[in-house]
Amino acid sequence: MLGVILNPYHLQIVSFILINIILGISIYITLSSGQLSLGNAGFMGIGAYTSALLTINFDLPIFLGIILGAVVAGVFGILIGIPALRLSGVYLAIATLGFGEVIRVIFVNWESITQGSIGLSGIPHLGRELFKSFQITGFDPDMLGLKNNQFIYLLVVLTLLLVNILLIWFFIRQNKSRVGRAFAAIKMDEKAAESMGINITYYKVLSFTQGAILAGFAGALYAHVMAYISPADFAYHRAVDILIFSIFGGSELIWGAIFGATFMTILPEALRFISDYRYMIYGVVLIAMMAFRPQGIIDVSLLNWFKKKLKIKRGGSLGIRTKKYN
Amino acid sequence: MLLEQIINGITLGSIYAIVALGFTLVFGVLGIINMAHGEIFMIGAFIGVLITSVFGLPLWIAFLAAIGVTVILGYMLERIALRPLRGKQGVSHLAPLISTIGVSILLENLSHHIFGAGNHPFRHSFAQIQFQVGSITIYLVQILIFVISITLMVVLSYWLSKTKAGKALRATAENLETASLLGVNTKRTITTTVILASALGGIAGILVGMAFNSVNPQMGLSMGLKGLAIIILGGMGNVKGAMAGGLLLGLAETMIVAYGDSGYRDAIAFITIIFILLLRPQGIFGKNTAEAGR
């Protein structure tokens, strides 16, 4: 039964969606303090290469590699974030885009370590490593009626899903905390926020670094899910894709980034039957979207409408509880 | 040898300057980055290839055709992607950025579909004509590119500073509402600006085709990114800054290819701007407030 539903191709797409959701959140979190950073593809690359190189060359366990990848990306985030504070708006966007390009060019040229534009292959696969540890305990996927291959991809999806739920939970909590309110205040009006006693430098660097850590984390996961990375994976197109996830879905809310990442990952796959035209359609969708709904698909009023619907359905008594899911 | 490199650098730089002018005009008036500019430039280059290599017509017709097509594209860009977003309530400043990205994705894949992914040679009759001045070789193409670029810049500067339409454009760039109160037809001025910027992109496309003898659908992207770097270098919305920045970048790139590591050629633009932004956030020629360029 389970074995029929779970097609490795679909599982692979689901794992891309889950990685893209993390990337979407990474740009949402920098946007939530009013900073537009297009360097997340660069941070993603740093995370991916760090984790891949550590696990290939030093036989580090994958989980340690992924965490170190995120940490290194975070360190770069602080290093870039502090001087980038002087910039705002378009200047910050272009400078961070430039940072991403510089990182990519370094990956291409530092051939002794990164193998240049050929890319790194033979990166330990997240699913296979997990599978090995399952095998040691004597578990056989046949017990669930699954083939080895399906089980490996299923493991990847489940791990990513768990990570996603934890991250989304964390950031929803953070949005309602002091930190989230500080971000929102800075986004609305920097000077007013400063005069209210919010430490702008600290919170801006914090949100920039959180974005960098998340992007690096997603990059490290990407490396271990794909088992192959090349500098082209972290180029301008990736930066634009990440931005689109958040803007298309709606940049005001975390749900926007999640929806955008899901939709924009499925769209090219769903349009595969007209493969020649699919990226043209992607472009047209973006233009039309901005003309008719520039705030993104999911905004506060849509969410409120949705909540009202839910309230009516569940009856008044549960209405108060649904209000929590802001 | 050094002199030859300087000539190469100036040729490249004057093309960069024209591309950057397109960016800077749109940014100055509308306050947005036109991410589709690189792709319009690429379409201009392809029109050049089509006219000269496929139909075998002379170069000046290629220029006219490229200008014609890019003007139409510019008009459509304004009408479809930019105008619907203007003056709408609650539109974030990111919306026009995304919609021009949409246009750029559309154009890149369209030309990929029509022309294929490969390189197209740009044939013209005087590619090999060269002069010997002392020990250095100068190609006729280089002189032509330089002359065309300089002419364009002079005409554009004159147009901006002396004519009524140019003054209207500068007034709109300064403050859209005030200009509109003072009787400037801002709608028309904005359309003119986008069209003018696109035409500049188209001309630059043919010049690049002539200089490098190769045109492909991906060239718009790298040129677009360099154009962005240049307008930061020269100060956002600053016409003279864009020209100087373009020449500077052209020279820097040629020098790094000749005397340094050619692998880092594409990064030099961004390494430079990252340093410049940290030292002087408003660009080399920018005004003192970084806020003004937001």
TrEMBL record, chain A:
Keyword Coiled coil: no
UniProt KW keywords: Cell membrane, Membrane, Transmembrane, Transmembrane helix
TM annotation in the entry: 12-31, 38-56, 62-82, 89-107, 151-172, 205-230, 242-267, 279-298
Record PANTHER family: HIGH-AFFINITY BRANCHED-CHAIN AMINO ACID TRANSPORT PROTEIN BRAE (PTHR30482:SF10), HIGH-AFFINITY BRANCHED-CHAIN AMINO ACID TRANSPORT SYSTEM PERMEASE (PTHR30482)
Protein name in UniProt: Branched-chain amino acid ABC transporter permease
Location(s), subcellular: Cell membrane
Keyword Transmembrane helix set for record: yes
A GO MF label: branched-chain amino acid transmembrane transporter activity
Annotated organism of origin: Psychrobacillus lasiicapitis
Principal cellular location given in the protein's record: membrane
Pfam families: BPD_transp_2
Alphabetical list of InterPro entries matching this protein: ABC_transp_permease, LivM-like
Gene Ontology annotations for the cellular component aspect, listed alphabetically: plasma membrane
Membrane topology: Multi-pass membrane protein
TrEMBL record, chain B:
Chief location of this protein within or outside the cell: membrane
Subcellular compartments: Cell membrane
Keyword Transport: yes
Membrane topology category: Multi-pass membrane protein
Keyword Membrane among UniProt keywords: yes
Cellular-component GO terms for this entry: plasma membrane
Matches recorded under InterPro entries: ABC_transp_permease, BCAA_transport_permease
Record key words, sorted: Amino-acid transport, Cell inner membrane, Cell membrane, Membrane, Transmembrane, Transmembrane helix, Transport
GO-annotated biological processes: D-alanine transmembrane transport; L-alanine transport; L-isoleucine import across plasma membrane
Pfam families per record: BPD_transp_2 (PF02653)
One GO MF term: L-phenylalanine transmembrane transporter activity
Transmembrane region(s): 6-33, 40-57, 94-116, 136-160, 194-215, 227-251, 263-279
Recorded family membership: Belongs to the binding-protein-dependent transport system permease family. LivHM subfamily.
Name of the featured protein: Branched-chain amino acid ABC transporter permease
